[in-house]
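Input record (one chain):
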Amino acid sequence: MKERPKVAVIDTNTLAAMGLKQILQNVMPIMTVDTFGSFAELQSANAEVYFHYFTAMSIVLEHKDFFVARRRKTIVLTLSLDTMSQLSDFHCLCVNVTEQQLIRSLLTLQQGAHGKGEHLPPMPDIISRKILSDREIEVMSLIVQGYINKEIAQQLNIGLATVITHRKNIMDKLGFKSVSALTIYAVMHGYVDINKI
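The corresponding structure, as predicted from the sequence alone:
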């Protein structure tokens, strides 16, 4: 069996690194995500095996030669959306935004950088199988677009209790606990256009 592609998160802020790891595992379930608290830790783990480096700006600046040589694989984690504060040679990802905005940025990056995923290995069979009914897909699509239960009921001309039941069934079937995870699933499977979230 082929080994899963690996992604490295390099950040001295352990909590931030762990949070980004969780989000990346939702956005790219085929990836293995490893976290490192320093550049030295990354080097001791054989840095060349990683498909991408999600790296704090301070680490990129301290080890610029390494990251410039791997600029296509490096995503710099910034605290500002201001392009003047970002490194022009690199893809940058602002992490000082809401969870929904961060997920949207990651999905946009993933789709743009990998041609809608065509350069990535295929998704595991369990993830790629159709699990939801057509009605559940309709409900999920509206949930991730930000509609509340009452609005979904009106739009689909069904009862509020039915929407709540569908919502519970969707989360149970997919094993998700948050709307963010549901959003990632919906965009990755083409159920919702990224521009509508």
